[in-house]
Specification:
The protein has 287 residues and is α/β, with parallel strands linked by helices. The chain has 11 helices and 13 strands. It binds 1-O-phosphono-alpha-D-glucopyranose (G1P). The site of 1-O-phosphono-alpha-D-glucopyranose has 13 residues, from strand 11.
Length: 287
């Protein structure tokens, strides 16, 4: 089976849930203390064996391009000022893997975005990581790796799911499960953001391993929820589709509460400020 070397990390959304800040800063660049979410996502891909990351953006999001380009002037400046560790920190993102940034002309939904990258993706299977979905794993493999391993077992496209509360199923792509084998679930159908009667509580949470078959399915997909070409609708046209109930903590960083949770949880884990953050939270004496 072909090895999976390419990942798409989507960063084209407008971030409307986070206006006004997203008028000036892409949500994918929001810092989790001092590191943008996007850098976490690229790290996850690389730790899962990915060699090239393709990032579709809107042309306004130039800060994303800047972040993945070397800035030798700034590196020299920091080194001369006695901060070689900071020079290293700003170079780091440019050394992780090949990063290809693709400017999109139009936003017509996730399916449309993936289709726009057809020529960059070629014939081999690839990973899709949604730029809003930060998934942190501690004692298990990165979530992309969990999915790639599952793909290598079943040989069919697969998406990462977790169960969510029934009250929030209308925010997600929800699968209709078939046979369940451990964490592996056969997918019998899928609905994007079901208004009522969700087929289950298993929600797609931003990770997919796809094959080139998806392109032809997207071609046959009419605009769906939100009048957009939905990846979910195209997935239902595949001959066979699996879901994998992955291990990991997922944060929706495009959502205010989700973002704040990520900052709190990940800052507590840090060596430099973790204890101080915990002390501060305790001092609040929250009831
Ligand atoms: C997208 C997908 C949806 C998925 C969700 C996960 O929706 O279309 O199927 O459940 O991401 O975050 P969005 O949140 O971009 O509207």
């Amino acid at each position: 089976m072909a090895t999976i070397k390419k990942a798409v990390i989507t960063a084209a959304g407008l971030g409307t849930r986070f206006l006004p800040v997203t008028k000036g800063v892409a949500k994918e660049m929001f810092p989790i203390v001092d590191k943008p979410t996007l850098e976490y996502l690229v790290e996850e891909a690389v730790a899962s064996g990915i060699e090239e990351v393709i990032i579709p953006i809107l042309k306004e999001k130039t800060e994303i391009c800047r972040f993945f380009e070397r800035n030798e002037y700034y590196e020299d400046y920091l080194t001369k000022k006695g901060h070689p560790e900071l020079a290293k920190a700003i170079r780091y993102a440019t050394t992780l893997c090949k990063v290809t940034i693709v400017e999109l002309n139009d936003l017509k939904g996730l399916g449309y975005t993936i289709y726009s990258l057809k020529d960059y993706l070629g014939d081999d299977p690839f990973v899709v990581i949604l730029g809003d979905d930060l998934i942190i794993t501690k004692d298990s493999d990165p979530v992309c790796k969990q999915l790639i391993d599952a793909y290598n077992r079943v040989g069919y496209p697969i998406l990462g799911v977790q169960t969510v509360d029934k009250s929030v199923t209308s925010k997600y792509g929800i699968i209709k499960p078939g046979k369940v084998d451990g964490r592996l679930i056969e997918v019998k159908g899928m609905v994007e953001k079901p208004k009522d009667n969700p087929p289950s509580c298993y929600a797609a949470l931003g990770r997919y391993v796809l094959t080139k078959d998806i392109f032809e399915c997207i071609e046959r997909t009419e605009p769906g929820a939100g009048d957009e070409i939905q990846l979910t609708d195209a997935l239902t046209k595949l001959d066979k589709l699996y879901a994998y109930d992955f291990i990991g903590n997922r944060y929706d960083i495009g959502d205010k509460l989700g973002y704040v949770k990520a900052v709190i949880d990940l800052s507590i884990e840090r060596d430099d400020i973790g204890e101080d953050v915990k002390g501060y939270i305790k001092s609040l004496n929250l009831k």
